[in-house]
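Design review, sub-item: ligand-bound model
Attendees: FS, YL, KQ
YL presented the inputs for the magnesium ion complex:
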Amino acid sequence: MKVGRFSREGVLNYGVLDPEEQEWVVLKGDPMFAGYDPTGERVKITEVTLVAPVIPRSKVIGVGKNYAEHVAEMKDVTGGDAPSQPLLFLKPNTAVIGPNEPIVLPAISDRVEHEGELVVVIGKVAKNVPAERALEYVYGYTIGNDVTARDLQVADGQWTRGKGFDTFAPLGPVIETEFDAADAQLQVRVNGQICQDGNTADLIFGIPEIIAHASQAFTLLPGDVIMTGTPSGVGPIVAGDTVEVEIEGLGILRNPVKAS
Ligand code: MG
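KQ shared the predicted structure:
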């Protein structure tokens, strides 16, 4: 099922999509914590504004260099070969925005780039989870854009600031709780032009391995998200652009880009 979070006249609700009626079944609470508990109300999808389907309670975990062709294109930028184990970094949850919200370019960066990614939404507290059981801890999947100020990432020699600005973690449009993440086509378009076109089958480290590796280091909390890495084709975005990340089965995450 598709779980969304939306606002109507300033009121936020979670809902489950009824695809035939194109309506949201409005829920009393966050279904990740409160289960499927409808209010009895339904609302047309055209009558609400979607917001980020999850606000991570504690962290957005990123995985760097997780597609071979992307590793190759970054060799002269951030350097290095494919990592021997998942390369993790963190983005603050203050970077999260929802669909159609603008990515704001920091004045101190001359090069901000898109990175379209499949995103795992954690549903249960996870610590030292073996890969064989990792998927039991997944609530669902959504789409993300690991927006990166490439010049600052390179200048700093580490990634926190370059990937951590406000608006640098668009998520959405919805969370799909039944999704085969092992073989999903992922495409990024800037102003309609295809820039990235990959498949999650080409992830160097698959989702179970990433969860196992991350949960060795950090306790994963419900609502934490993991951005699983970007395929090749990353490139700059400038004010006035529109970035779309599409993953078959998950929809399209669309964000305009504006100057600060
Ligand atoms: Mg990335």
